[in-house]
Amino acid sequence: MAQTKKFRGTGTAIVTPFKKDGTLDADALRRLVDFQIKGGVEAIVPAGTTGENPTLSLEEHYSVVDLVLEQAGGRVKVFAGAGSNDTQKAVELARHAKAAGADAALVVGPYYNKPTQEGYFRHYRTIAEAADFPVIVYNVPGRTGGNIEASTILRIAEQIPNVVAVKEASGNMAQIMEIARNKPEDFSLLSGDDAFTLPLMSVGGDGCISVVANETPHEFSDLVRACLKGHWQDALELHNKLLPLMNANFLESNPIPVKSALAMMGMIEESFRLPMVPISEKNRDKLKQILIDLKLV
Question: What is the reported pTM?
Fold first, then answer.
């Protein structure tokens, strides 16, 4: 499959709203998609970690991806979550993303298994070739228990044509800079950590797959576009304005704070699936004050 045009911009790792009874809230998800598009993001990423994909059934996973694609209606790109620590399951998720009409599949590094670097390489090669579809690597060692090293990311980028980008959330600037310096020109380096977006883009990154864009799509996508234009002072001002919320979104495990914030904003019901639980009262108060300061509630 031919490489898609290089992605540059903001993709929102969108939450999956649930009703109080724990079922999918399709109406709220549609509203969130429209809120993101109106806010100016360039892509939406459903059924990822922020979308609580570990507790979605396969049918629900497909339904979330299909609904987001339908509501987006081609107005923005859609990168469908397709991660699994079972390579063959990831292949099937990526094949569904392709058949549904998504633009790419976001595939997290296999968690718990702790593959070798060769294992990571073969995992992504198998998915990209079997699904015949663009794949975005998601490296998030803090959640998976293993780091996909810069040398492996670069090997994947150079040797597997369908792997078109990496969402980098290692928190390791040395690793990020090595990827930025040596990656192919048509391979996108995207931040997987909102607070790292400005420094990552300053060394040659292309954008972010964002959590905070759920709450502030307009300002965060403006931040990314300012970086792409080289308007670093404007970007820094937006970064500093949003930094308290970026950090607050990780006071507890994602997506607990961001879903709590969206509930305070009247966008969704505050409903989680175990083992995710509601935010603590102490952190709820901190989060609410930040939302008040930003005039979001």
Answer: 0.97
